[in-house]
Amino acid sequence: MPPLAPNDPSRPTVSSPSSSGGGSPPPSPELLLKAGPFLRKGVTTPRLMVDVILGLGPVVLAAIYFFGLSAILIILAATAGAAFTEFILPPGGQPRGRSLKDGSAVLTGILMGLCLPPAIPMWMAFLGGAAGIGLGKLAFGGLGQNLFNPALVGRAFLQAAFPQAITTWSSQGTVAEFSTIRPSNFALPFMQPPPPVDTITTATPLGMFKFEGQAESLNNLLVGNTAGSLGETCAILILICGLILAIRRTFDWRIPLSILATVGIFSLILWLLNGERFATPLHMLTSGGLLFGAVYMATDPVTSPIAPRGTIVFGIGIGLLVVLIRNWGGLPEGVMYAILLMNAATPLIERVGQPRAFGRTEGGKAVAS
Amino acid sequence: MADSGSSNPLMLGSQQQAGGGSVDPDRMYREFAKGIWKENPVFVQVLGMCPMLAVTNSAINAVAMGAATAFVLVFSSIFVSLLRSFIPKQVRISTYIIIIATFVTVADMALKAAFPVVHKDLGAFISLIVVNCIILGRQEAFASRNRPLYAVADAIGMSIGFAFALLCLGATREILGSGTLFKYPIMGSNFQPWVIMILPPGGFLMLGMILLVFNWAGQTRAKRRHRADGEANAGGEVGSAS
Q1: ipTM of the shown complex
Q2: A46: three-class secondary structure by DSSP
């Protein structure tokens, strides 16, 4: 028998018991019928999650380096919120705690924490993690069923619930201030943070550009020496981590590449048309949450399309929306909403680029998929 | 319900019926109680979502909406029930709407005269009671087929059920969104309000959560009853229970 194509589900393996029984007791003299796939990569869900968490490691360390102990507290609070919700509300009648073991809730919590500002109260980070897992994932039926990226659902919930706290950007501390924790982190649950006395608030590079017309220097943007959410500031580090994850095939490289290419090309056109009103393409690419979102958020395998051509449509959509929201929207940053909107469109995009069904009808026509 | 479903065109109104057949107090109570919990218009029938989402950003608005709806529901039920043998089948819906609209206009004007502030808060949603599915649904499903006393019992029960649901949502949203309940601060001066809760998304979120809790409670109860039944029938045949 010639070897079968490994990923060909339409051809069942028909093997006689004499050829497939390897030392087992003599099987019944019936044909064994197996369906594909026959080759497996051996990648399990926990393994994938651990891969991404390791890929996030340098970004977490950079967040701690830039923002001090506040970063640790916020990431821990968000992760605790996500894991706690996953634990107390197990999806689909599973025993408590089983779904926690695949690591997806912890990953959601870490991602959620990394896209929060450093001075946010810890209880809000906890609530954001809980809302992300509860509303974004468990309400849909658990891992694999969710329509929207859970970490971004949590972030969007916080943005709608506490618009002021989530847009208060405190500047990075010096090395000497590493162990000083921002006092607003310790606001009591459900209470407002105390009025800012010793933290210096500032604007993110995107906010500065949008409202004051000042562009941050490219050096600062690349190294990460700017205000912003915990994990989004250091462009170079995110690029390197993303490259490693892409080479390891942890996610589909087409998604971030098509997002970044779309943003680059679109903003280049705008910049050439009117260099005063619009930011340079490099400023667009390296500022705000674009790189972090493109590498870690948009590539979520559950909420992004699977077919290669679909992933490119998905990425182009996100890129266009980011440029539109940043330039013409009310907010300086739009990566979160762009990704959430395209998440909603994913089932539709999934119809693009589906492989053709194998075989033909009797008349010789292709089988409709 | 064969005893009360009147198809006799000669039965005209409550007086004649009250004289004809005696009112069963047990049935009165059943018709009244079912709307509060077992057939709650919001939590079980999921009707009337528009006012449910639109006016529940504070407890006071919720109560005012509940009262106005109750007034309209009770009085239109009485009239539809009294006139049920005169209304031709072909134009019954428009007839109900005219009756309902009359009482909505009364409620609208009364509220405007007595509580202008609340009336301004509720805005167009008072007029929109006309198209509230709960009211039209009760006329079609109950008042047009039953005697006025039963219709009133049913309408009062449904009104209480609806007002209870409105108050649940309104109170939760007001507490989280403004830190107050009936405008009285209960969460302390330093409370951080959740802006989302007084905005439309908060209405959808809280309604979803409340429905979730009610469905979960209902399923748990059904499961327990199922298990209890199974134990009671344990001696009998096993496979027949579905």
Answers
A1: 0.75
A2: helix
